[in-house]
From TrEMBL:
Keyword Transmembrane helix (UniProt): yes
ATP-binding recorded as keyword: no
Designated gene of the protein: Vha100-1
GO cellular component, one term: vacuolar proton-transporting V-type ATPase, V0 domain
TM regions (residue ranges): 421-449, 469-489, 558-576, 591-611, 662-681, 758-780, 786-810
Protein name: V-type proton ATPase subunit a
UniProt GO MF annotations: ATPase binding; proton-transporting ATPase activity, rotational mechanism
Keyword set, alphabetical order: Coiled coil, Hydrogen ion transport, Ion transport, Membrane, Transmembrane, Transmembrane helix, Transport
Family annotation (InterPro entries): V-ATPase_116kDa_su, V-type_ATPase_116kDa_su_euka
Length: 857
């Protein structure tokens, strides 16, 4: 049936490659992406393999490329990505690549070190400039009126100002040194105050000030001023805020203590001359050096930028080349060397249909390497379970991912993905049915499909967006199917479309209709007799009292109908598995009883629904009028419990058709009879077959295990062998069969009820849409005049946000998860085991797409 309905047939092959041609051949296989290699050295340490040195060289090259990438991103330089994948370079080209990367890294590190040293020097000069400015203000504030006054020095006023300044200095000295020290000083001997100036981080200043006060016992005088502009940290480039401080003290002991405190708080001290003329001279020199440094820094940054721009043009291609080289050598480490050390031996899983393509790729690799010995690809016989490989394209990939999320299919097991392409969006649409909401979803999916090349090239890291984009075809189909079911429900944003005109007639006059809110239309008199051409009649939109009752009955029944059909289809899928694997016991004693149990009980209930719809109507006379229509649920309960039905009203029949009671009793007895068959038949037959096998091989010593396992095959024509395992104990077989039978019988009831979520979510979605229309949008529609237009615009925006956010996104996610559960549990549990393991070929595209250097265990 092809790989669409089953996984590809796989073959285990042995590959012989000449050592000089192995690299080129593996490179061609990596471009092809159809070979999964096995590790033939599982007990050998990764550091003891043949090509470990080459892998280490690739790791070192990749480290250098990551360093370049980090520097390029730091400068915001765009990296050229042509989307092309260059071929894997030859082994001799590794030396050129290593030399190129080494040169770039050394040059960039040297430039960075020089730039960091220049920035550190620039920071020190900038801090010194601020210190000279701020400390000049501190010194000028000491005696501003003495030295900067315009009073002549020979006048009496000038002498009085000097005396006042001396008194002020004596007061400050008294505060710093204490009154006793001032009195103890000899007349004419000046007490000289020392000082240190520096810069400290602004957030450390309060703690720094407290520590100075406590350690020096208040015998220091601290002045500080903030630096308004933030400074750049040369180490990491962050902007930091700092403050200038100056500390006055007296004595070497306090000087030592102050310097230690500054060192502890990582404050930077700078020399500051005492004389104003020296400070001005130093400030001028600092400004000159800062200007020179700015020039040198600019040139350094320009050189660094040029180096990075040149590297950015080739960085993506370099990454691809290095990753391909590393992947090739990592794969070669999985091979074995023959005795002569001249040939590499590999084992690999390959799709049976692609063996010729693989052989062509091996020939191309041999020709590229110049080897004269062709590679040899031999098919091997094995009892191992092959990997599962389902070919997908951009359309089927998302649906296959939904199936694989439940479990990878066993080898050659029926693949539910092709059927899920239809059933998944349909069941979603049954819950989400609305023409307007479905159109929004379909347009969003169509936009992603039309723009998929540009959107795929962006390669964003946003996981939510990647999920949406990966499922763009699912979203589009869910939207289209929702539009279809919305037309069936005749529901668009909770309103109906009257395209063909209602097939109900109004027999009341206008005044009666306007005054009475609880009028009813009689199906016998007011209904024309022919249904609405497509979907639900729009008259039900204005049926205030019984609209929900009618919709409930309709949607509840179609939920059960779709659910039973879906489950029956799942059981039929198991027939394909049993016939393909030639499992005659499971086909007769599992599939047939399971199908009969489901048809005799639940499909019969579906038939009763159709019989009720066909035979009973308001226009019919008794016993087939609407008053005589029995309840399907009560009928089914009475059938299963063998209850006698309650007497029908006068003129009505108890049963829907002749012989219904006999048929129901027969169906229930047959369904109950299927249970012991499912429970005991298969284990008993397996036990009997084992006894016969043991009796036949008993005379031959030592042949028991061969006879028991010799017939275990996955069918020769299907390729690959079946699982070569030890026989399962009979007790375990009985237990597993009991669990499987009980799960199926009870699950048939619970799974049928589980499909009622189709009705529940559809009802909730319709009611939420009606609430938003009634309580939000209708408020704006009732307003009149120009003011009403303004109100309607605002209300419409709010309604649109709620519609998209709640009804499309949240309700859509809820319906998606419920649909996923119906497929995983109710549908796939009937036939799908999902106990296989995925085919993971050696593919350069997969390695590069995942962004990893190589796929390692």
């Amino acid at each position: 049936m092809g790989s669409l309905f089953r996984s590809e047939e796989m073959a285990l092959c042995q590959l012989f490659l000449q050592s000089e041609a192995a690299y080129a051949c593996v490179s061609e296989l990596g471009e092809l992406g159809l070979v999964q290699f096995r590790d033939l050295n599982p007990d050998v340490n990764a550091f003891q393999r043949k090509f470990v040195n080459e892998v280490r060289r690739c790791d070192e090259m990749e480290r250098k490329l990551r360093y370049l990438e980090k520097e390029i991103k730091k400068d915001g330089i765009p990296m050229l990505d042509t989307g092309e994948s260059p071929e894997a370079p030859q082994p001799r080209e590794m030396i050129d690549l290593e030399a190129t990367f080494e040169k770039l890294e050394n040059e960039l590190r040297e430039v960075n070190q020089n730039a960091e040293a220049l920035k550190r020097n620039f920071l020190e000069l900038t801090e010194l400039k601020h210190i000279l400015r701020k400390t000049q203000v501190f010194f000028d504030e000491s005696v501003p009126t003495v030295y900067q006054s315009s009073v002549p020095r020979s006048s009496n006023k000038y002498r009085r100002l000097l005396q006042m300044a001396d008194n002020q200095n004596e007061d400050e000295q008294a505060q710093l040194l204490g009154e006793e020290a001032v009195r103890a000083s000899q007349p004419g001997q000046n007490l000289k105050l020392g000082f240190v100036a520096g810069v400290i981080l602004r957030e450390r200043l309060p703690a720094f000030e407290r520590m100075l006060w406590r350690a020096c016992r208040g015998n220091v005088f601290l002045r500080q001023a903030m630096i308004e502009t933030p400074l750049e940290d040369p180490t990491n480039g962050d902007q930091v805020h700092k403050s200038v401080f100056i500390i006055f003290f007296q004595g070497d002991q306090l000087k030592t203590r102050v310097k230690k405190i500054c060192e502890g708080f990582r404050a930077t001290l700078y020399p500051c001359p005492e004389a104003p003329a020296d400070r001005r001279e130093m400030a001028m020199g600092v400004m000159t050096r800062i200007e020179d440094l700015n020039t040198v820094l600019g040139q350094t940054q320009d050189h660094r930028h040029r180096v990075l721009v040149a590297a950015a043009k080739n960085l993506k291609n370099w990454f691809v080349k290095v990753r391909k080289i590393k992947a090739i050598y990592h794969t070669l480490n999985l091979f074995n060397l023959d005795v002569t050390q001249k040939c590499l031996i590999a084992e690999c899983w390959v799709p049976l249909l692609d063996i010729e393509t693989i052989q062509l790729a091996l020939r191309r690799g041999t020709e590229r390497s110049g080897s004269s010995v062709p590679p040899i690809l031999n098919r091997m016989q094995t009892f191992e379970n092959p990997p599962t490989y389902n070919r997908t394209n951009k359309f089927t990939k998302a649906f296959q991912a939904l199936i694989d999320a439940y479990g990878v299919a066993s080898y050659r097991e029926m693949n539910p993905a092709p059927y899920t392409i239809i059933t998944f969006p349909f069941l979603f649409a049954v819950m989400f049915g609305d023409l307007g909401h479905g159109a929004i979803m379909a347009l969003f999916g169509l936009w992603m499909i039309r723009k998929e090349k540009g959107l795929a090239a962006q390669k964003t890291d946003n996981e939510i967006w990647n999920i949406f984009f990966g499922g763009r075809y699912i979203i589009f189909l869910m939207g289209v199917f929702s539009m279809y079911t919305g037309m069936i429900y005749n529901d668009i944003f909770s309103k109906s479309l009257n395209i063909f005109g209602s097939h109900w007639q109004m027999s009341y006059n206008k005044s009666t209709v306007m005054e009475n809110k609880y009028l009813q239309l009689s199906p016998k008199e007011d209904y024309e007799g022919s249904p609405y051409p497509f979907g639900m009649d729009p008259i039900w939109q204005v049926a205030g009292s019984n609209k929900i009752i009618f919709h409930n009955a309709y949607k509840m029944k179609i939920s059960i109908i779709f659910g039973v059909i879906h489950m029956v289809f799942g059981v039929v899928m198991s027939w394909h598995n049993h016939t393909y694997f030639r499992n005659r016991i499971s086909l007769i004693y599992e599939f047939i009883p399971q199908l009969m149990f489901l048809l005799l009980l639940f499909f019969y209930m579906v038939l009763l629904m159709f019989i009720k719809w066909i035979k009973f109507a308001a226009t019919n006379e008794k016993p087939y009028s609407e008053a005589c229509a029995p309840s399907i649920l009560i009928t089914f309960i009475d059938m299963v419990l063998f209850n006698t039905p309650k007497p029908a009203p006068s003129g009505c029949g108890v049963y829907m058709f002749w012989g219904q009671h006999f048929v129901q009793v027969l169906f229930v007895l047959l369904a109950l009879g299927c249970i012991p068959i499912m429970l005991f038949a298969k284990p008993m037959l397996i036990m009997q077959a084992r006894k016969l096998a043991n009796e036949e091989v008993q005379p031959i010593a030592g042949a028991s295990s061969d006879a028991e396992t010799g017939g275990v095959s996955n069918g020769g024509p299907h390729g690959g062998g079946g699982p070569h395992e030890e026989e399962e104990e009979m007790s375990e077989i009985f237990i597993h069969q009991s669990i499987h039978t009980i799960e199926y019988v009870l699950g048939s009831v619970s799974h049928t009820a589980s499909y009622l979520r189709l009705w529940a979510l559809s009802l909730a979605h319709a009611q939420l849409a009606e609430v938003l229309w009634t309580m939000v949008l209708s408020i704006g529609l009732k307003q009149e005049g120009w003011f009403g237009g303004v109100i309607l615009t605002c209300v419409f925006g709010f309604w649109a946000i709620l519609t998209v956010g709640i009804l499309v996104l949240m309700e859509g996610l809820s319906a998606f998860l419920h649909t996923l559960r119906l497929h995983w549990v109710e549908f796939q549990s009937k036939f799908y085991k999902g106990q296989g393991y995925a085919f993971q070929p050696f593919s350069f595209d997969a390695i590069i797409e995942n962004g990893s250097a190589a796929v390692e265990e």
